[in-house]
From TrEMBL:
GO molecular function terms attached to this record: oxidoreductase activity
Organism of origin: Ornithinimicrobium avium
Lineage: Bacteria, Bacillati, Actinomycetota, Actinomycetes, Micrococcales
InterPro entries to which the protein is assigned, alphabetical: KR_dom (IPR057326), NAD(P)-bd_dom_sf (IPR036291), SDR (IPR050259), SDR_fam (IPR002347)
Keyword Oxidoreductase included in the entry's annotation: yes
SMART domains per the UniProt record, alphabetical: PKS_KR (SM00822)
Assigned keywords, A-Z: Oxidoreductase
All copies of domain Ketoreductase, residue ranges: 61-235
Any Pfam family the entry gives: adh_short_C2
Sequence similarity: Belongs to the short-chain dehydrogenases/reductases (SDR) family.
Protein name in the entry: SDR family NAD(P)-dependent oxidoreductase
């Protein structure tokens, strides 16, 4: 019986969000369990109509976004805040962006990470439930000329920084038997990038980190996933020379760069109740650039 009506539950899950839902069936009547859903009957021609609902059963979550003062991290933080979640971002200097609460944090320093979490938890009034490890840097260079310092700095920030934040975050998550860890990687992590051995290695490492967290803590209600953006519309991509921009665009099946909001939407979904059974996954937001990897 449960399996028979799984499609009805699927339709209902859409109707509890802000989507308009049309279901299809092939009998004369909607049948049991379909009350409140409006359907099309392709074989018996009942016509089409639509239901709208704006209800949502999502509880506000306590969210910490590293590097949330600008770029993709800022879009992620704003997206969570706009959806009614309690958000704190980390920044290294200056003031947090308008309307967001911030704590100072350098992810290459364990003490700084610990202090930032303690302060964030005071601001949030509870332990962090959703960690978005977004802080990252690049220091590109050809392999033969790459210095130890440039390799180490990128791995220390992008990979070890995410590890330090995840290690601190799961303390509260284990106690609560609930938590979401989202690691912001890159299409380059699996595709590779000439001149980006340090960056690609650090971003590929996040996959092993998320999957090991999943194996270690999956039974405690904690998920850990990787989001792998491709080219994103940022100041950096805006300033690309026209010929390089055209070349990059030609390699992307979608034929365009992503917006920061498109990355934020996927991160938010991973933190939502609907994604409770998604863990250890690598979700590309790259318009098809890296598919198959
Ligand atoms: N932009 C893209 O096209 C793209 C594509 C794929 C993946 N990504 C990844 O997405 C993430 C965000 O990228 P973005 O383009 O938004 O970068 P961005 O604008 O350069 O911002 C990077 C953020 O990381 C923070 N950060 C850097 N080092 C840090 C450290 N040691 N401790 C704490 N925070 C630190 C920065 O803080 P400060 O402001 O203090 O410097 C800033 O908030 C990165 O992990 C990046 O690798 C980006």
């Amino acid at each position: 019986m449960a399996a028979r009506y799984s499609h009805i539950r699927l339709a209902r899950s859409f109707s509890t969000d802000t989507l308009a839902v049309v279901t299809a069936w092939t009998g004369r009547r909607p049948g049991p369990g379909r009350e409140g859903l409006v359907g099309t009957a392709p074989r018996y021609d009942y016509g089409v109509s639509v239901t709208d609902s704006t209800s949502s059963n999502h509880q506000p979550q306590a969210v910490l976004v590293t590097g949330g003062n600008r770029g993709i991290g800022l879009a992620i933080a704003r997206s969570f805040a706009d959806a009614g979640h309690d958000v704190v971002i980390t920044h290294r200097s200056g003031q947090p962006p308008e309307g967001l609460r911030g704590v100072v944090c350098d992810v290459t320093d364990s003490e700084s990470v610990d202090r930032a979490f303690t302060q964030a938890e005071e601001l949030l009034g509870r332990p962090v439930q959703v960690l978005v490890a977004n802080a990252g840097i690049t220091k590109d260079g050809l392999l033969m000329r790459m210095s130890d310092e440039d390799f180490d700095a990128v791995v220390d920030t992008n990979l070890a920084g995410a590890f330090r934040c995840a290690r601190r975050a799961v303390k509260g998550m284990i106690r609560a038997r609930h938590g979401r860890v989202v690691l912001v990687s890159s299409v380059v992590g699996l595709l590779g990038g000439a001149g980006q051995t340090n960056y690609a290695a650090s971003k590929a490492g996040l996959v092993g980190l998320a999957r090991s967290i999943t194996r270690e803590l999956g039974g405690r209600g904690i998920t850990a996933n990787v989001v792998a953006p491709g080219f994103i519309e940022t100041e950096m991509t805006d300033q690309l020379p026209e010929d390089l921009r055209t070349k990059y665009l030609a390699s992307i099946p979608a034929g365009r760069f992503a917006t920061t909001e498109e990355v934020a939407g996927v991160v938010r979904w991973l933190a939502s109740p609907e994604a409770a059974y998604v863990s250890g996954a690598v979700i590309p937001v790259d318009g098809g650039l890296g598919m198959g990897h």
